[in-house]
TrEMBL record:
This is Transcriptional regulatory protein tcrA. InterPro entries: CheY-like_superfamily, OmpR/PhoB-type_DNA-bd, Sig_transdc_resp-reg_receiver, WalR-like, WH-like_DNA-bd_sf. GO terms for molecular function: phosphorelay response regulator activity; transcription cis-regulatory region binding. Pfam families: Response_reg (PF00072), Trans_reg_C (PF00486).
Amino acid sequence: MRLLIVDDERDLASDLAALLRREGWVVDLAHDGHTGLALAQYGEYDVLLLDIMLPGRSGYDVLKKVRAEDPKTAIVMLSAKDGEYDQSDAFELGADDYVTKPFSPVVLAARLQAVLRRSGIPRSLQLVCGDLVLETTTRRVRRGRHEISLTPREFALLQHLMREPERVYSKADLLDAVWDSDYPGADNVVEVYVGYLRKKIDVPFDVRSLETVRGAGYRLVPVRAEPAG
């Protein structure tokens, strides 16, 4: 799952991002309305978490602009303002939920998942490639009838690859999508995790769905470990 947090309280945003990353989310951060709007317009996010009081451009303005262009992405407003009119304004502009500060990060994470379930967007529910199935809201993966246990990072990598089967992703693409734009490490972490994934989704089933494209990157192709039907 990809999430954009737009909040000028940097410590709060960083702490929340760290928690959600441990849960397998891919999180980007912005600390003002203009940057948040630009990222929301040109990125591909499952959820936007917007503070109302932002420098440069208010969260309401960002919400209104994004919702006019994208009616599907889930948007959750975050604010210290808990008046009923504030919440009413947010919902009228197209927000899917409204969370007041202070809040429990664990509860917020659960509410983000609930928003995704209510959104009814197919891409946020189930991804399929051959007989490999990934359920994003329940975080379950299976090949055929066999359940596969993945770590949060392995899950995030597989989810990204499954969004566009047969597309070739470079290491840079995967680093940006799965390890976030500010990842400080070396890009060989992608090779390491591709190896981890192969040992779980391919090797036990004697298939080769996660391919290396020499000089270009990686792609996931549809294969079946069991006869169809």
